[in-house]
Automatic annotation (TrEMBL):
Pfam families given in the database record: ABC_tran
Classification lineage: Bacteria, Bacillati, Bacillota, Bacilli, Lactobacillales
The keyword Nucleotide-binding is assigned to this record: yes
Gene3D superfamilies: P-loop containing nucleotide triphosphate hydrolases (3.40.50.300)
Taxonomy, superkingdom: Bacteria
Residue stretches making up the ABC transporter domain: 2-237
Name of protein: ABC transporter domain-containing protein
Species this chain originates from: Weissella kandleri
Keywords on record: ATP-binding, Nucleotide-binding, Transport
Length: 242
């Protein structure tokens, strides 16, 4: 599904990603952990082409993102992304936010599109907010709508870039519970950048630990939390847990 081969990423002279080699299988849930500035968000943003790579190859669902001939819009149809901030269209209702991309990109039949959007609202527990404007919703509710909007395109992979970091603490669990439900009930590939250790323990098949633009550890979840091998990972976990 996703394969990094010797990927390098620079911002000017700053070396943001260093020799990244990583494979993510279809249906796998992978959590990326590490200190701030370690390259986690940069890595996840390269997967849907928001950040171009300078060296190596990045294959996403058969598309080589290093190839200038790759149709990035076609690739992105299969890769959804949920950001820290919700980026909902303020001038459209909740239901219209969810229906817009399938209408414009997939040319979905309007009745089918509406039915699918309403089903997604049931999934995220906000069917009663269909005709509301985003500004009337809490941050946690807006993030759940953003997840529904990403799912509306029926992506094969869903990327989460610290989806709870901008939320008040009491709203975090509602969003994490939706993410757990997606991971449990679908065959979707998920990559999640987060600092929510409980979520990582419960949901992730694997944990990737990054620091200074490098992958220092790639291990099954239980193994990582019980016996992290890298000293940086050990220090990170001890600080998070205390």
């Amino acid at each position: 599904m996703i394969e990094f081969n010797h990927v390098e990423k620079y911002y000017g002279d700053f070396h943001a990603l260093k020799d990244i080699n990583l494979e993510v299988d279809p249906g796998e849930t992978v959590v990326l952990l590490g200190p701030s500035g370690s390259g986690k968000s940069t890595l996840i943003r390269t997967i849907n082409g928001l950040e171009p790579i300078q060296e190596g190859h990045l294959i996403v669902n058969g598309f080589d993102l290093a190839d200038p001939k790759t149709d990035m819009n076609k690739m992105r149809k299969n890769v959804g992304m949920v950001f820290q901030h919700f980026n909902l269209y303020a001038n459209k209702t909740v239901l219209e936010n969810i229906m817009l991309a399938p209408r414009k990109v997939l040319k979905m039949d309007e009745a089918e599109n509406r039915a699918a959007a309403e089903e997604l609202l049931r999934l995220v527990g906000l069917v009663d907010k269909a005709d509301k404007m985003p500004s009337s919703l809490s941050g946690g509710q807006q993030q759940r709508i953003a997840i529904a909007r990403s799912l509306a395109m029926k992506p094969k992979a869903l990327l989460f870039d610290e989806p709870t970091s901008a939320l008040d603490p009491e709203m975090v669990n509602d969003v994490l519970n939706i993410m757990k439900k997606i991971a449990a009930d679908s065959e979707m590939t998920m990559l999640v950048v987060t600092h929510e250790m409980g979520f990582a323990r419960q949901v992730a098949d694997r944990v990737i630990f990054m620091a200074d633009g490098e992958i220092l550890e790639d291990a099954p979840t239980a193994e990582f939390f019980k016996h992290p091998k890298e000293p940086r990972a050990q220090k990170f976990l001890s600080q998070i847990q205390h």
